[in-house]
Amino acid sequence: MVTFSSLIAAFSVFLIGHSLSTQTGLPLYVGASGLILAVIVFLAMRISSFLRIFIAMYGLGFLFLATLGLAGSVGILPESIAALLPPTFMASAAVVFAAVVYGVSFLTPIRHVTAIADPYFDTKDPSTKNAEIPFTWLGRGEAQVGKRLVGLLVAINFLQVALQVRLNLFSRDLFNALGDKNAEAFWFQLLWVFVPIAAIWISLAVYELFVDQCVKLRWRRWLTERIYGRWLDGDTHYRLSFAGEATDNPDQRIQTDVSNFIIVTMRLTINLLQQAALLVSFIVILWQLSRDFVFPGLGIEIPGLLVWAVLAYAVIGTWLTHVIGKPLIGLNFSRERVEADFRFSLARLREYPEQIALLKGEAAERARLDRTFGAIIGNTLQILSRNMKLTTFTAGYGQAQVVFPYLLGAPSYFLGKITLGAFQQTAGAFSRVADALNFFIDQYRTIAEYKATLDRLTTFNGALASVEDSRHQREIELQTSASGGIEVDDLQLGIPTGRTIVSADGFRLKPGEATLIGGPSGCGKTTLFRALAGIWPFAKGTIKLPKNARVMLLPQKPYIPLGTLTGAIAYPAHDHTYTPEQIRDVLTAVGLGRLIEDIERPDNWSQRLSGGEQQRLAMARALLEKPDWLLLDEATSALDEQSQADIYRTVLAALPNTTVISIGHRASLVNFHKRHVQMQKREDGLFHPTEAAGARA
Ligand SMILES: Nc1ncnc2c1ncn2[C@@H]1O[C@H](COP(=O)(O)OP(=O)(O)OP(=O)(O)O)[C@@H](O)[C@H]1O
Question: Considering only CA atoms, which residue is closest to atom 6 of ligand 1?
Fold first, then answer.
């Protein structure tokens, strides 16, 4: 593949070199650009697939232009076409663009962009996954469709540049016709040159919008699904919650940052591409027009005066913009954080209205909201002040740009060296070149915001990847036990800060032997349960579970999803996994019979049900699920003694094949367990599960 591409590259270099040297008579320039191109095209095969789309499109453009150039050089091309698309300009534009793209692909932020962008353009997924979004017919694979659509956008932009070049020639001819008072030529230019170009321009703009939106939608869907797929894979989302700042507000990253990333990546790359093409096209026009310009005041001729002037103007402008605008990058990063903090404070308020109302915590919450929102205001004011400084500079810079070419060109015009048409054309070309060079100045704010989005996605991606890696190098060995029970050996359990809190060696749980685990608060009972359920990442040692054992853990505060009661009871199984009769039976069994009427009513049940009712609902889940091992972590703590006894009796009777292991502080719980284990602190400062007296009657 690489060899074939290199052959094509070599062939196109030959054609371009030939066409350029015959047209420009500058063999050194042609040879050098040909050499650069050959190296670039060869190396381009190795860079990211997203950037390769742009290079490939330019390769095609090259071939097309080289063919035109060759045809032109042997005289078989009508002059009007050669004037419309001067191959020298386009070829130079392509070389500059490819060099820029290849050069910047080594910069760290660009590597971060391609690391997030590339997987979509490399995916093996079929395009039918996005069947409801237009353009599925473009290819079988989603990556193919994505690449072709981006390629199509590049081609449309390429055509728009060609049209702008043609409009510049039109402006020259129109003003010359005006200067010569040639009405016929004037009307011809207006009706037969401008009108068709305008019609093509409008159609292209509409089609570009359509293609652009479709590719963004396809890409966003793929990337969003992939990220939340990875986030939910196994217990990644749980482990990620220990990763600290790198993963704050994952909801915002998945919803807002992914979308912003795609929108701005497309806008910046396509825009940069178009500006690069415009830059080289109009620089050559400007050079030709100001070949013998006279320096104002001095009367000396400086070849290409306007090109040097515009380059110096833009370099100074870009540098000053960066100096003035640089703090915006940090300020935008902070903005994401303070906005997220404020949103989170509001979400907490929504989650705990009752607790806050009971504690009369409104004033404290208000103070917290004032503080977090105050940070937003402070940050926005800082951004505003910086933006005002930047705008003062860029607006002044833009205004100066309007008169600058007239100042420089006037002496040559008054000396009669250039026509009015050429003078006007020069001013147009100058402003196009300046606009292209002003890319960074114009986009500075967008780039500063984009950097914050990019950093948030990059850190999230990195955290996901490290959790995925660590899953393969767990320090805990989960094995199959031969005895049919749970066997724990050499187990050490820690907490995220690195402290070890529990040690268990030779700890056995036999099937059918209901066991109660007790111990002081904070000694690590819940942590031991998390390890037995296989989700606690800060663990070392061996845990053996019976083959295919189904372990269910009911925590003190159960999770109740939004939706119907039927869905909440069936969770995590599908809403309609169980029949209405089954749901009704278990609700009655756990003492929630009064809710039977409401089982299909969607509600925020976690706020409507009392703590005890929520614990009953979790028990109903266990009755339906019938696990082999049921770990109850203070799962009846919100119930009165009598209700707790009733529930235990119900569960033990309904699930004869389930082994119940409970954590609890109430002495009465001993009655429902055959064995009693106590977490005891030993000399090593760690809590060990230790046999205690106490058995079920
Ligand atoms: N995510 C975490 N980050 C930091 N520390 C944690 C985390 N989870 C638990 N711990 C700490 O680990 C210790 C053991 O917690 P665990 O919940 O296992 O105790 P417990 O014995 O179940 O307590 P209780 O009887 O009060 O429910 C506690 O000191 C707790 O603060």
Answer: 495
